[in-house]
Amino acid sequence: MRDASPQGRDTPWRGSIHGSLTQQAACHQRQQEITQMPDDELRELEAKRRKALWMLANISPGDSKAFDPLSILDDLELQERKDSPHADKALELNQLRDCVTVQHHHSGIDIILEQTIPQPWRERFNQASIGSTRSLAGPYASDWDKFLVEWEREMQHLQDHRLAKAANS
Predict the structure, then answer these.
(1) How many domains does the chain have?
(2) Which domain holds residue 79?
(3) In the predicted model, is pLDDT for residue 6 greater than 80?
């Protein structure tokens, strides 16, 4: 699908949804049902999560230094389950990739349309991107892709810590 730019030129959409608004609407409706937290609370929760993940990043699984960040992350997940009773219906990363619109910007670089990122992922991306350079039209698509790859790595690292903690209990 193509989108007419304000300059009257067509710009291609990239992604497996091919610009399908129906797919995006379904993604956002699903996430709205899951994320019922006010924006300021979500921002605070995701800022705490980001700090804890960064603290955990340089700690080896099984190291006692992981206790504090693991406790923070466990508390945040409990809070999330309490505040979002449908959290078990959360989008998988592949579904999330399909929800987000990537557009070729007239500057020659691909950007994402930030409003197409469903919550809580938009806030997670924003927290991880604090201080990053971006276009006025939207974040760089390459930053979004890097964020998703890093998120997968962080979740695997977190799982490794939890397994080590369980083995030592």
Answers:
(1) 1
(2) 38-168
(3) no
